[in-house]
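To close the chapter, one final illustration. This time we ask the reader to focus less on the individual chains and more on the assembly as a whole: which components sit near each other, and how the overall shape emerges from the parts.
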Amino acid sequence: MQAKELVEFLEGKALQLRRHILEMVGVGKAGHLGGSSSCAEIVAALYFHWMKIDPENQHDPERDRFLLSKGHAALVQYAALAELGYFPVEELKKVKTLGSMLQGHPDMKCTPGIEANTGSLGQGLSIALGMALGLRLDGRKSRVFVIIGDGELAEGQIWEAAMAASHYKADNLVAFVDKNDVQATGPVKEMLDSNPVADKWAAFGWHVIEIDGHSVKEILDALEEADKVKGQPTVIVAHTVKGKAFSFAEHNAAFHNGVLTQEQYLTAKRELGLLKE
Amino acid sequence: MRIESLREAYGQALVKAGSLNKDIVVLEADLGKSTRSCLFQEAYPERYFEMGIAEQNMASTAAGLALAGKIPFIHSFAVFASGRAYDQIRQAISIPGLNVRICGSSCGLSDFGDGSTHQALEDVALMRVIPNMTVLVPADAVETRKMVEAMAEYKGPVYIRINRNELPVYTSEDLQYRIGGIYTIKEGQDVVIFANGVMVSKAMEAAELLQKEGISAEVVNVSTVKPLDADTLVEKAKRFKAAVVAEEHNIMGGLCSAVAEALMVNNVNIPLNFVAVEDKFGTSASNYEELLEHYGLTADNIYNKVKKLLA
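The assembled structure is written out below.
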């Protein structure tokens, strides 16, 4: 695929992920719209292009691994896995209902394609590090990708893991910080300011790349750069917008885990091209 | 009576397990000289990960290693291994039932000098209430070695609690050990003492004291607190006039609770009492025996409880 075509293809996938997110959130029930939408391009780029994965051979030991440390954004990951055929798209309708394979947070025992149990914030980077170390011990080429939230950076364990990954020179580990600047109950700057984010990771010995997290091209360039880094882990600090592409939800903490009205739902449908004006 | 160090036995057994199974990896939180995981570091440095004083990251990293096909053994003092990393053990290790082995070393009051912050009297309870978790409390060095060997093969997460001190060896080298087994150490006729860890040796001393008065006590080692083999426990208890449970742990939530729950729901209505720490934190002392005495974790106390139950 040509570069331009690839970008358009992945932008289309990100749109498709957001459409699924909207349908999963629906009307009148709470759902993690904001943080799912902010990392849609990153998830699309990883799942639909960058990672070596095969839904037909899910347990291939040589596969790349993806962990959603900010597990509350599970909707975006479920959407990607369904699109890839890990399970039928119809399962998305049952998300967070009793007996569903799609739990409120990623559960490897319930959902095909999920690699670990995440969502208790601060733990995914450590799990990713363990995977990276284990894969390296076996001489495998697999890479481990993990998405962390910027609110999540308040968890001390993130920095324990950051120190350890650097100490162990885990260059098969790439972390994205989905820096959408808003956490569950307000702006990160007002809640507990995690800035300056890039400087902190650099001080912990990571190779740091800063990008616009909604630019597919910048995401792909950053992943290429990360692949060439040897002897240290890479963090991609992705500047994003919480609730991206949902006009009423952008930058708005109310839609971290908000409830959509019928009107908002229809607005979103129009914005995502699912309804004519 | 031969005495032997449990933690030394643990460290040696870990090295042996590592020689037989290349998937075994070891993680430590800067206490390797105490936990004796340092022996594994000397033998297999490439499979040893010093994680620094960061127990939470150690536990979650172990989950990741398990997901990559490894069998991680993680180490710290019992108080930190179970308490500091509790959420990590619950979320990433226990919910999916990963093959992580958690060694809580210097358990109970056995780190006698360091006081309440470093003594673990709640760890068995904390680990027991986590679904999928197996909880092991070895009585001596011989049993410790067998447990480590069994843990290498076992499926799912395991917590093992290791005493810091040398303890008398009461379990038999010849015993075919399995996780979940309940083993009679000394047979008796009148009363049964269920114990684990250091309290097995105290129970054996108590049995001797009772024998002098013509009371025949059976001593049973319940070294697997979970999954508890309730059927065997009930069968053993039914034959006696009374039972005492003895453990070096808070009286709530550990072996005492587990045995009481099993006997009650199975209608074994024999008089029952406990020798355990009466819902208190630890404290510093100049030696281990002095501290065990301070909390009533003694042969005399077991003896007195038995006498009262039979009176």
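The longest helix of chain B spans residues 6-20. Residues 27 and 61 of chain B are 9 Å apart (CA to CA). With these observations in hand, you are ready for the problems at the end of the chapter.
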